[in-house]
Amino acid sequence: MTNSKLFSDSKKVIPSGVNSPVRYFEPYPFFTKKSNGAYLWDVENKKYIDFCNGYGALLLGHRRKEIINAVSNQLSKGTLYCTPTEAETELSKLIIGNFPSIDKVRLVNTGGEATMTAIRLARGFTKKKKIIKFEGCYHGAHDSVLVKAGSGSAHNGISVSEGGLDEVSKNTLVVQYNNIEDFQKTINQNKDIAGVIVEPILANMGLILPEKNFLYDLRKITKENNIPLIFDEVVTGFRVSPGGAQEHFGIKSDITTMAKALSNGFTIAAVGGRKEIIDLLSPGGKVYQASTFAGNPISVSAAISSIKTINKLKNKLYSKLERFNLLFTTALDDMATDMHIAHQINFTASMFQIFFTNKPVINYETSKKADSKKFQKMFRTLLKKGIFIAPSQFEVVFLSDAHTENDLNKTLDAYDAALKSVKN
Q1: Are residues 285 and 369 in the same domain?
Q2: Total domain count, the chain
Q3: pLDDT (tens digit per residue) in 83-103
Q4: Which residue in 55, 403, 412, 421 is a FRET match for 64, CA 20 to 30 A apart?
Q5: What is the pLDDT confidence band of residue 159, given thresholds at 50, 70 and 90?
Q6: Is 260 in the active site?
């Protein structure tokens, strides 16, 4: 069986042939048959070094032994109970132990479900309607946050999807990331702000880092105005540090969402925060949220094992990934510079991205000005060389604990060829 034939078959029964739009790339995506450690193998038996890593979920690599063993043990006991389990309490305690801003936590299934719940909680807590989000931040595919980002000052959001309700989106104000003056002005002009949601580090517009004091000023202004601050740590939770970006920057949010690296590849997410906010969730409170699969024992067992493994290895894990990332991005920067290719490389912790532009990438506007056609040319060359990164300029390259120095050296060789293809 070939990738081409499987894609042709999939298009007959799956819209556009994929179950998530980010998985598509021209002329067709490869179809994976297995994975292990830092590697994927497609149906044609081609091996790839994986730097997409489940879009950041696989911090510990594919088929991590500790996690697979925990899940296998749970499989022998059952897959879904729809009753409380002791393991759910254990997992909640582990999350709270890693995130000092969280007093209580509710388990859900996906990052989008977590951010949807977080926004509903903020509105329920404040009895207000409007939400502020930032250009380039992605918080899932629900109407409150799936809005078009404008340029310059804040504006009422407009749905980017047909079928999305502008009546919902109009209550979302979009502000430029890293522009605290824009944010303060929006706060001053609107007295009906229920909450502010932000990716503390943007990982869905390429990689964009907060400028000095931006997050601190966000926290200060929201506190002064009694507005709940929501940190969307779906990507950064456990990946940037055991306590996410808020541990890294030393900032406590009022509500936190997390998913991805929480369970190293199993389907689970969480929303947590201050007790007086999280206790508003039903049945004890009047903010409704429910799910059949929330807290299912398979995903919970994976998350428990993932957090315990991270906590056990954290002194070596994060320093190793940061060292690898620095070595890699320094070498990549040198190669692009020697080839006289205009570029910017943003990196932190175990994440990086290269942009083909001569201007610093600090927000949505500057990210969109990067040459995405050059990125696509680089991507296709990398793929031919057996290196799989996310197929979009507006995603991130992720390192995992499974990557070795040999993997990085092979990947740098591939990037050398890919940059030469861009230059030509």
Answers
A1: no
A2: 2
A3: 999 999 999 999 999 999 999
A4: 412
A5: low
A6: yes
Structure letter (DSSP) for residue 209: P
Phi, psi of 386 (to 5 degrees): 85, 25
Cα distance between residue 59 and residue 350, in whole Å:
9
% of the chain surpassing 90 pLDDT:
92
Active site includes 410? no
**Active-site entry in 42, 50, 143, 232:** 232
Q: Exactly one of 128, 130, 133, 260 is catalytic; name it.
A: 260
Q: What is the rounded average pLDDT for all residues in the chain?
A: 95
| Together in a domain, 190 and 335 | no
Domain range for 318 is: 3-63+314-423
Query: What's the one-letter identity of residue 8?
Result: S
Query: 118 and 182 share a domain?
Result: yes
- pLDDT recorded at residue 89: 98
Amino acid at 247: E
Residue 45 identity: N
* pLDDT at 57 exceeding the cut of 70: yes
SS3 annotation, 294-315:
CCCHHHHHHHHHHHHHHHHHHH
**pLDDT surpasses 70 at 73:** yes
- 156, pLDDT greater than 60: no
258-281 burial, b at 16+ Cβ within 10 Å, e below that, comes to: bbbbbbbbbebbbbbbbeebbebb
Of 309, 332, 356, the residue that ends a domain is 309
Verify that 216 and 299 share a domain, yes or no. Answer: yes
For residue 304, the Cα-to-chain-centroid distance in whole angstroms is: 20
Among the three residues 309, 335, 370, which one is the final residue of a domain in this structure? 309
- Are residues 330 and 384 part of one domain? yes
Rounded to the nearest 10 degrees, how much is the dihedral formed by the CA atoms of 378, 380, 384, 389? 80
pLDDT band at 154 (very low <50, low <70, confident <90, very high): very low
Q: What is the CATH number of the domain that holds 134?
A: 3.40.640.10
Active site residue 420: no
Same domain (yes/no): 300, 326: no
**Which listed residue (138, 318, 364, 415) is catalytic?**
138
